[in-house]
Amino acid sequence: MTAARDLHTVLGAGPAGTALAAELIRRGHQVRLVDRSGDGDTPAGVQRFAADVSTTEGARAALDGAAVAYHCVNVGYHLQVEVMPRIQRAVLTAAEAAGARLVVLDTLYPYGETHGAVMTEDTPWNATSRKGRMRAELDAGYLAAHEEGRLRVVLGRSADFVGPGVLNSTLGGAVFPAALTGGEVPALGDIDLPHSYTYIGDVAAGLATLGENPDGDGRVWHLPTAPALTTRRILDLVAERVGRPLDLTVVAEPRPFGPFDEVFMAEYAEMFYQHTEAQIVDSSAIEKAYGLVPNPMPATIDATLAWYGELLAAR
Question: At the top level of its lineage, which domain of life is listed (predicted)?
């Protein structure tokens, strides 16, 4: 990749896309960050761009001149099955036209229920949920496009996000503000099971590393993820840092509670198995291949509490 062709374009300005854009700037790349609005908080040095990448025209405009494209776009739970395939078609077409490599941020959904088995990149794709089957079909399409020689593609799978800027996660905006203010903290499912969470900074570092290393193309990688702890242990770490026990409410089955409203929980019900069986991600492959080390969970909790504390103070 030459300096004249070093535009890294990040599609999606949510927590992952924004963290990735900042990481790419730190690594010395020219970075364009794309979403529908083209405004909002932007890391220093990043160019903002407005485009609807669910359309071929919007995706082509967004990826014009890009050497590497990062697909970090997500949509509301109730829209995913309908909209995500449309985004895939547009992004594949646009990346191919631009001659860009494509790095896709992915989820664990294609694996489906694993009955607590450790998830590696060799775990079978046995999804039975609508959203899991949809994600598996998309991933098969991405890998097929690579195999067919249309363009170079690589997928980076993450567990549930946690960290600064992460609001819409089971370890996000429902947990940390309540922990800091003494409010009611919801915890989903069996909190005594191990559950992997991926630090948003490790999502960014993993995707950026895949973007810089074409030798990893044509396959799925697990993004760097700290060793799984039980959700109860993670919440204990939070309690230790805020200096008081949490007012914990265990949501043992999919029902509306607090920020998890009826619309969200109705769509999330089919994925609730993630909280009733252990979710353990092994990311040793990417760690060994590229020398990445995931952020330890205690440090992740420290950074997340600090960010939420600043957010609450600003309000």
Answer: Bacteria
